[in-house]
């Protein structure tokens, strides 16, 4: 498992006080063994199955987790996604944290997949953004991937992205891109955000690799694609609905960057149900 996800699991369990579950200590005997099921209560794309299992195995490495549907799988309502078996005291200590991760990630994967399906056959891809829940980015980026999207950059260190604020500070798109290129000792990808045709022309005449087209209409996007002539990768940064996203893709852009798939999606309804106790 990704070390960043392991860290999130550890911190989430600490936040929940897993090592001092006073209710479980007071009520349950030590020798009960539980078998439980994760069950989908709504249809969607599951994500975080492995992370949810990792929650229990962090508490007790002897807990058995049997995954029936891997992350990235589409499930219908009523589908059993995974079984968990082990000491009831250990499983109940991790139950809520596992569900929180599982439901959140599956909600993101499901929402991402809805947009991905709308783009079928266009050649355009959905990108996640850095608009994620603080400290949960590794989970949420993985959920975007499980939903069929692409994660884009993970943080500020893995790509040079020149925004409107950078441009304003140094006096122009081309100047900003040239400064970035001259200081790009790690040979990172350089992206430039543009807001109009003049900035687009400047970006095309600069050493950037890709161009972010910020909040443009479909007509403006089509014009930018014509100007580009395939020279740079084009990313439409906007807030489309499921009904409008395909029309954006058909302008010819390479990617559509969506904040909504991580910052305002609905969790997928998943429950944990005891199926056997001995």
Describe this protein's structure.
With 278 residues, the chain is of the alpha/beta class. The chain has two domains: 3-109 and 265-277, Aldehyde Oxidoreductase, domain 3 (Alpha-Beta Complex); 117-263, TIM Barrel (Alpha-Beta Barrel). The protein is built from eleven helices and twelve strands. Strands 6-11-10-9-8-7 form a six-stranded parallel β-sheet. Strands 3-5-1-12 form a four-stranded antiparallel β-sheet, covered by helices on one side. A two-stranded antiparallel sheet has the order 2-4. Helix 10 (245-249) links the parallel strand 10 and strand 11. Helix 3 runs antiparallel to helix 4, helix 4 packs across helix 5 (137-146) and helix 8 runs parallel beside helix 9 (218-228). The model has no long low-confidence stretch (mean pLDDT 95).
């Amino acid at each position: 498992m990704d070390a960043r996800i392991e860290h999130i699991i550890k911190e989430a369990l600490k936040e929940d006080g897993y090592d001092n579950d006073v209710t479980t200590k007071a009520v349950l005997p030590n020798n009960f063994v539980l078998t439980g099921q994760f069950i989908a209560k709504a249809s969607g794309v599951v994500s975080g199955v492995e992370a949810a299992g990792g929650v229990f195995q962090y508490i007790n490495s002897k807990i058995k987790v049997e995954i029936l549907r891997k992350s990235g799988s589409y499930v219908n309502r009523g589908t059993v996604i995974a079984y968990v078996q082990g000491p009831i005291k250990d499983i109940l200590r991790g139950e809520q944290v596992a569900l929180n991760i599982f439901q959140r990630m599956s909600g993101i994967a499901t929402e991402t997949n809805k947009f991905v399906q709308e783009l079928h056959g266009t050649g355009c891809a959905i990108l996640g953004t850095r608009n994620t829940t603080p400290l949960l980015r590794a989970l949420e980026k993985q959920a975007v991937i499980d939903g069929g999207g692409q994660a884009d950059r993970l943080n500020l260190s893995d790509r040079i992205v020149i925004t409107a604020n950078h441009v304003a500070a140094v006096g122009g798109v081309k100047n900003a891109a040239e400064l970035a290129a001259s200081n790009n000792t790690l040979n990172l990808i350089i992206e430039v955000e543009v807001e109009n045709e003049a900035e687009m022309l400047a970006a095309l005449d600069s050493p950037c690799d890709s161009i972010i087209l910020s909040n443009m209409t479909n007509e403006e996007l089509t014009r930018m694609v014509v100007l580009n002539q395939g020279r740079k990768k084009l990313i439409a940064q906007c807030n489309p609905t499921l009904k409008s996203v395909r029309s954006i893709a058909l302008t010819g852009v390479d990617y559509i960057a969506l904040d909504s798939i991580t910052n305002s999606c609905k969790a997928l309804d998943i429950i944990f149900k005891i199926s056997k106790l001995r």
